[in-house]
UniProtKB/TrEMBL annotation:
This is Lysophospholipase L1-like esterase. SUPFAM superfamilies: SGNH hydrolase. CDD domains: SEST_like (cd01823). It comes from Microlunatus parietis. GO terms for biological process: triglyceride catabolic process. It comes from the Bacteria. The active site is at S84, H333. Disulfide bonds join C119-C145, C195-C209. The keyword Disulfide bond applies. GO terms for molecular function: triacylglycerol lipase activity.
Amino acid sequence: MINTWRTRQGRTDRGTGALEYVAAIATGAVLIIGIALAGIGGQLQAMAAEAICSITRQANCVNRLTLTPYQQALTGKYVALGDSFASGEGAWDYEEGTDYDDRDDLWPFNNDDEDHNRCHRSKNAYAQILAADNDFAGGSGFVACSGAVIDDFTRPNGDNTGEDPQLAALNDDTSLVTLSVGGNDLGFADVLRDCVINGEGGVGMIDSCQEKHDQRISERLPELRSELVELYQKARQKAPNARIIVVGYPPLFVEDPDDDYGNLLFAEDQEWMNERAGDLNAVLASAAAEASVEFVDPTDAFRGHGLGSDDPWFNDLDWGGPGLMLVDPSSFHPNAKGHAAFAKLIQQQLEDPR
């Protein structure tokens, strides 16, 4: 009978042979499972690969089972996805090529030869702070874009030149993803524009914003939750080795607001919008839990720093937009202080996941 054990200098090296035998079985199993589960995504395949790392102990194999969650997040590339609350709209110092001025469109001699990109990726955004404060082995990528909706994660952003689908920035080497989206899909920006008492088809002086928009938002939330679960699952498929952190939305206004006509919103509408931000965060948290990704709620961290406070972390209403009586997009967005608070909160989650 032929001895199938590997021999060396006439001796049977049974330990090595057994190791190779087990590794071969594990590798074959992974191949079979990988084919069978191809439609499910990469997370299970990544877990199986980790198991092979434990068995074979190859030198080039990063065994994440021995790393802390924080260390795992640093093993590859950090990619920041999202909408205006992630891009840094309102935090200023925007990256070149993402700060097209809409007012240029008003000039009759504008030959329209510029790239129209208004993503407003700020150098003060929380993504930039996190990238600078942590040693990511693969560097960082920043593709969040002001005005982004869920569709912009899977399709090119037609409103901004040169913006690929945001999920295209993810791959197997991505080790951390931060993601903020849902506010525009719920129509918060449209609600704010409509609720500002500007006499241009907005809410009349005797109506409240809540009366006009509450039912529509209530009906939209369940559908939005399903869309978010699907998005988070797609992000996991694109970045099977990454920690994915969904970032929520802070309340814009103080808890007990006045009828402050500096921002032209009734006190009851400010309270209502704070409540709706809480409802959106509940949906984000629920969707994140179903998709097995992390969620960070900024509500408590921003408490006491809403509009109307002595130290607001948001920009108040600004009429600096293009044309007459138009709101500047930086209005009602976190300022540099707000993004520093976001970065601190996410850093805490990185180091001590909850």
